Amino acid sequence: MADPVRVTFLGGLGEIGRNCAVVETAGRMVVLDCGVMFPDPDMPGIDLVLPDLAYLREHADAIEGVVLTHGHEDHTGGLAYLLRDLAAPVYGSALTLGLARVRIAEAGLEDRATFVEVMDGERRAVGPFDVEFIPVTHSVPHGFATAFSTPQGVILHTGDFKIDLTPVDGRRTDLARIGAISATQGVRLLLSDSTNAEEPGFTPSERSVGATLRRVFETRPGRRIIVTCFASHIHRVQQVVDAAVDGGRKVATLGRSMAKNLELARRLGILTVDDAVLVPIEDADRYEPGTLCILSTGSQGEPLSALSLLAAGESKWLHLGPGDVVVISAHPIPGNEWAVGRVIDQLHRRGAEVIHTGVEPVHVSGHARQGELQTMLSVVRPEYFVPVHGEFRHLWNHARLAAAMGVPEDNVLLCEDGDGIVLEDGGVRRAEPVPAGFLYVDGTVGDVGHGVLRDRRVLADEGVVVVVATVDTHAREVVTAPEIVTRGWVHAPEAEALLDEASAVVRAALEEALADGATDHESLRRHARRALGRLVGERTRRRPMIVPVVVTV
Ligand SMILES: [Zn+2]
Ligand SMILES: [Zn+2]
C-alpha cells in the first residue's frame, strides 16, 4: 500500500489572489506558492490580505520547501510573512526568485530562506517529492507548471498559464513534455488555472500587443508617450522599448519597481535594452516630446503610484499637458476599476490622450481562455481534476469544461479555501477542512481581525456617537449631564438640540436603571447604549456605532 498524499488549499480558490497550497505525504510537506491578495474597497485601512498561515505554522517542522511557480505577488508576496515562522529552501526560476526576494529582503528575512534556482525542464527532489519544472507562458517570464511525482502518482499544477504559440522570448508552454508525462506515467490529479474559464476562445498572443504598440507610436510622432504596465511584465516592457527605439526615442522609467525590475531583468538577460537608450527620469524635461518614451508604474490606479501622481499634477519629474499620450497597457484587477477610471479622467483633464483597452488592444491577458483550458485538459487527460486560481464562478465554469472534456463528473472536485483532498490507493476523498480565513495586514500582520474590520466598516458608513456619563452608585444618581461626542453621525455644531435631547434621554435611562438597583458598569452601559441607540434610530434613521462610557464615583 502506498502512502496517501494530501493536497490542502489555503488560498486562491474563491478569490483572485493569495494563492497557496500544501502537498504532503507521510508527515512531510511542500508549500506551493504563498501569495497576497490586494484588499477590496470594503476592507478599510487594510494593506494586504494573506492566506491563513495557521496550518503551516502548526506544521513548521514538517515543511521541507516552498515551490514558487512564478514571480507575481499573488503567488510570492506572502513569503515575507511565512518566513517569520519557519526557515525553508525556496525553489523557482531566477527571475521568480529575484522578484520574490525584494519583499523578503525588505522584511529582513533573507537569511531564513535558501534560494534554489531551477532551470526549464529541471527535476528536483523537494522534500518527499520529485518535482519537475515545466515552462509555461504567462504575463511574467519564466513561469512554471510543476509536476509532483508522489507515491500516489503525478500531480500536475499548471501554475498561471496561457498557451501563447508566439511568445516574445520563444519559450512556449511545453505541451509536448506535459503530453509525454501523461502518456508514460499518467496524471492522477490536475490542478489548473481558472481565471479566464468564463471566456470563450483563445487569449491572443503577447506579440499582438507589440504590433498595436508599434502602430500607436508610429501614428503619434512628435508627441511624448507614457506607457504604464505591470513592472513584472518584462515582455510587455520589451515590446514598449522596441517600439520606442524603432521610433528613435529614448526611454526613461518612472516608479521604483519599474526601475528595479528593469535592472533585474537586464542582469538576467531576459530584457534587452541598450545602455544608450535609457535616460534618467530626472532629465526627462530636457528631451523633445517626440524623442522620449516613459515607462511608468501605476496601471492599477494605486493612489500613490507614479501614474496617479502624474495625473494629479504632483509628479516630481514630469508635467503632463496637451499633446501627451498615455497608454494604459493593462487591465484593472477586479476591484480596481473605479480607481483606474478616476485616473483616466484626471489624465484627460490635463489634456492628455489616453489609450486603454477600450480604445485599442494595448493589452492581452496572461491567462488561458476556454480553448486553451480545453487543450490543456485534452493533453493531460487527468484522472482527477480540481480547478484552482479563481473566484468561485471561474472554478465552477472550469469544472464544467472538464466534465465536457470527458473527466468523469465524480472525479471533478470543486474545492474552496481550506478544503483538502486525499489521494489514496482506492481513489480520492475529501479531507477535514483547515482554517483558511482572510489574514489582514495593516502595518504589521495579525492584529486586524474580523471584529476590527466590522467596526471600521460601521465607522466608515455611519460614524460614531460616544456618550460619557458620570454616575454616583451610592447615591444612585447621575452626577452631571451626560456628554455626547460624535463623528460622522450629525455635524455637531448644527445639531445642538438633538445632542441635548440625546443627553437627556441617556440621563433618564441611567436614573431609571439606578432606581431599579443596577450598579455594575456593564448593565449601566447597556442601558445607556440602548436608550441612545433608540433615539438615534428614531430621529435620524441612522445606525452609527454607539459607545457608552460610564464613570462611577
Ligand atoms: Zn500570475
Ligand atoms: Zn496568479
Structural summary, described in words:
With 553 residues, the chain is an alpha/beta fold. 31% of the residues lie in helices and 25% in strands. The protein contains 15 helices and 26 strands. It has an eight-stranded mixed beta sheet. Helix 6 packs parallel to helix 7 and helix 14 (496-515) packs antiparallel against helix 15. It is globular. The termini are far apart. It binds zinc ion (2 copies). One zinc ion (ZN) binds at residues 19, 72, 74-75, 160, 389.
Strand line-up of the largest beta sheet: 7-6-5-3-2-1-19-20
Q: What share of the residues lie within helices?
A: 25-40%
- Give the termini distance in whole angstroms: 73 Å
Number of strands: 26
- Radius of gyration from the CA trace? 28 Å
Low-confidence stretches: none
Main sheet, how many strands, which sense, barrel? 8 strands, mixed
The total count of helices amounts to: 15
Tell me the β content: 25-35%
Say which molecules are bound, naming each kind only once: zinc ion
Mean pLDDT equals 95
Secondary structure blueprint with pairings:
Layout: E1 5-11, E2 20-25, E3 28-34, E4 48-50, H1 54-58, E5 63-67, H2 73-76, H3 79-82, E6 88-92, H4 94-106, E7 113-117, E8 123-126, E9 129-136, E10 143-150, E11 153-157, H5 175-184, E12 187-193, H6 206-218, E13 225-228, H7 234-246, E14 250-254, H8 256-267, E15 292-296, H9 306-311, E16 325-328, H10 337-349, E17 353-355, H11 370-380, E18 384-388, H12 392-404, E19 420-424, E20 427-431, E21 439-442, E22 444-448, H13 450-462, E23 464-472, E24 477-478, E25 483-487, H14 496-515, H15 521-540, E26 545-552
Parallel strand pairs: 3-5, 5-6, 6-7, 11-12, 12-18, 13-15, 13-16, 14-15, 16-17, 23-26
Antiparallel strand pairs: 1-2, 1-19, 2-3, 4-21, 8-9, 9-10, 10-11, 19-20, 21-22, 23-24, 23-25
Helix pairs in contact: 6-7, 14-15
